[in-house]
Amino acid sequence: MVSFWRSASTGVASVLAGVGAGELVSAFLVQNGSPVLVVGALVIDLVPAWLKEGVIALFGTGDKAVLVISLGIVLLVAGALAGWLELRRPPLGRILIGLGGAFGVLAALTRSGAGFLDAVPSVVTAGVGILVLGSLARMLRGTVPSRISPDGAVTRRRFVTATATTAAVGALAVVVGQVVATGYRTAAAARAAFHLPKPAVAAPPIPAGASFDIAGLSPVVTPNADFYRIDTALQIPGIDPSSWKLRITGMVENEVELTFADLLKLPLEESTTTLTCVSNEVGGDLIGNATWLGYPIRHLLARAKPKPQADMVLSKSQDGWTASTPIEALTDERNAILAVGMNGQPLPLEHGYPVRMVVPGLYGYVSATKWVVELNVTRFDAVTSYWTDRGWSQRGPVKLSSRIDVPASGRQVAAGTVAVAGVAWSQHVGVSAVHVQIDGGEWHEATLADAISADTWRQWKYAWAATKGSHTIRVRATDATGMVQTSRVADVVPDGATGLHSIQVTVS
Question: What sign has the CA pseudo-torsion 142, 93, 33, 56?
Answer without folding.
Answer: negative
